[in-house]
Amino acid sequence: MLPNNLEKFYGLLRDYNLTLKTQQEGLPEWFDIYSDDKPPKYWSMLADILFDEDKDKFVLEIGSGLGDIIALAKFLGFKKVLGIEREAQLSKYANEKIKYFFAENESIICDSYPMIFDRAPGILIQVNCVYYENMTSKKQMVKMLKEWYSVNGIPELYILELIDAEFIEKSISYPEFVRFSEKEVKMIYKDTYIQSFNTYKYPQNKSTKRMYLIRQRNK
User: In this predicted structure, what is the pLDDT of residue 3?
Assistant: First the structure.
């Protein structure tokens, strides 16, 4: 059962984000979803997923943006949480947000993934971000997904959100080679236990996305 004050916390997070939007120009368009009265669907799903996980697990997020998922993990009680965001301005704002809510510094590293840590993350999170710079094929995307999954040792849980193959509209933001079916994901992460959930659905949203929970079978 989720904490009763989760809704209150999101309200405080939303108010902070609304204030940030009035003070700073050039924030990414997707940031608007964290200013709505209700949290993004994937944020709420992550709250459900993470709530029952061991809070001693090291949580690592790829593409932390403005820190709203890092904030969620810290609110839920995870003791070791770290994010990576390659855009300096976003990582600055994200760290300011985490410091405001949790009085902690440098929770988000400004750098590009993959990078090497001294231990494997217990939980690896990559949601609401699609990286494909300098890529032109699904083969390259598959190679990247495999590398990111294993470069620091296999995580106990990998939470991955991808553009779903059901999305067939033309899109500059999401070329066809970044779209994956559940069957393809199961081929990439063989010998794992996989659950999946729809997070976005076209045309209600700009694309169709699916979140995958990828667990080691011996866990």
Answer: 75
